[in-house]
Amino acid sequence: MTSTLGFAIMSVLARQARTGYELATAMRRPLGYFWTARHSQIHADLQKLLAAGLVRFEAEHGPGPSGKKVYHLTPDGRAALRDWVTEPPQQRPERDELVLKAYASWLADPAELLALFREQLAGHEARIAEYETHQAAMGDVPAVDHPSFGNHATLWCGLGYERHRAAWCRWMIERLAGEV
Amino acid sequence: MTSTLGFAIMSVLARQARTGYELATAMRRPLGYFWTARHSQIHADLQKLLAAGLVRFEAEHGPGPSGKKVYHLTPDGRAALRDWVTEPPQQRPERDELVLKAYASWLADPAELLALFREQLAGHEARIAEYETHQAAMGDVPAVDHPSFGNHATLWCGLGYERHRAAWCRWMIERLAGEV
DNA sequence: ATATACATGTAAAACGTTACATGATTGG
DNA sequence: CCAATCATGTAACGTTTTACATGTATAT
């Protein structure tokens, strides 16, 4: 069975052939906004995808003890990815440490809590500004069958998320500021 | 080192003494909205917390092969929890399968995608209605040092999250409906 | 020359899920 | 009496992180 990471890798390869190293950097940005993995996990997963016939590689001369391997999707890989996209996602448990802290916030020091949420808010505001710059640079939303539609869709979601979290932080700050 | 699950457990025990079984049901609702664990993991973690002196239990006669154990926080446990609340959360990687699918959505069938996002939207709308009922039942927001402030804060966040996701689904549906 | 980026992999440990295993209490 | 709920725990497996291990190409 292909893991979700396997599909994340194939989602990148569907756009362009890449080495494992390049996949790892894609897992920081832009893919890292919604899926991450370390290079050790990526190399291991690539071997599984290879065994399943979903990817293949061209060995090229390059850095590293064993040259470089440029991976690309096979027709089977592209078909598997295409099918996976429209299947309902398995709902994995939510795990949100800041919300957990909010649940226990009643026993903490309000002044320290206020500092925590102000710090979090600053982070969200910085990311909102960053995402808005990206969005302005990307221009109009293309047709849904264009690769960059995926970039628009994920950026829209990321921006909405950051705005929601910023609003929540402001609500918390308002409540806490009244107590200090 | 206490795991985040350990603090989740202590967040529940800070309100009321509980058995491991009761902690597992709390990990479905209401805690399950932002942190989950199975009973097997909870029992294992309780033994770590016990060894660290952060919780203790009273053995009581009851069901099960070994009676029941009602756990409560020790003063050390309460202090550790209190300190943890105001520490910045360690940013754990985002992993969102639906957003990953959106990233690869350009190569899928628009009609099937439309069905997927309509289904997701229906789920969000149902949860919004459910949370709004909870919120109405809870009444006004109490002082920040009252345990139920934690319930209000987490519910506010959950409601904001569901509304954000619903809005994103509607945006996707609008784009996709134009193509089918 | 030397530091940085590029490049691939393995091993150990932590975290989390699923399945296995047992048995008492309670309500119908 | 029987089923559901309450109750505790262990074992096997898969996923993810951290650390270990190596070595080339390139720009300063």
TrEMBL record, chains A, B:
It comes from the Bacteria. The lineage of its organism: Bacteria, Bacillati, Actinomycetota, Actinomycetes, Streptosporangiales. This is PadR family transcriptional regulator. SUPFAM superfamilies: Winged helix' DNA-binding domain. InterPro entries: Tscrpt_reg_PadR_C, Tscrpt_reg_PadR_N, WH-like_DNA-bd_sf, WH_DNA-bd_sf. Gene3D superfamilies: 6.10.140.190, Winged helix-like DNA-binding domain superfamily/Winged helix DNA-binding domain. Residues 95-176 form the Transcription regulator PadR C-terminal domain. Pfam families: PadR, Vir_act_alpha_C. Signal peptide: none annotated. Residues 9-82 form the Transcription regulator PadR N-terminal domain.
